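Example 9 (inverse folding). The structure is encoded as follows.
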């Protein structure tokens, strides 16, 4: 994961992409599988999708 103020206004993104981790999490919560997300974002590995989901879970726990 990458946080850079110059990319997507500093929102956490999957490294080497502009795909924000919250987008992955939101779509996953809406019922898409990790495999479907990876297929939709073809430049992202399945491992990166899982890493984004894990990152968002850690953020949510830290906010509690």
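The amino acid assigned to each position is listed next.
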């Amino acid at each position: 994961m990458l946080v850079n103020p110059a990319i997507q206004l500093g929102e956490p993104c999957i490294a080497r992409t502009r795909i924000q981790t919250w987008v992955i999490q939101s779509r996953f919560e809406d019922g898409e599988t990790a495999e479907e997300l990876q297929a939709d974002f073809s430049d992202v590995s399945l491992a990166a999708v899982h890493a984004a989901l894990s990152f968002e879970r850690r953020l949510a726990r830290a906010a509690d």
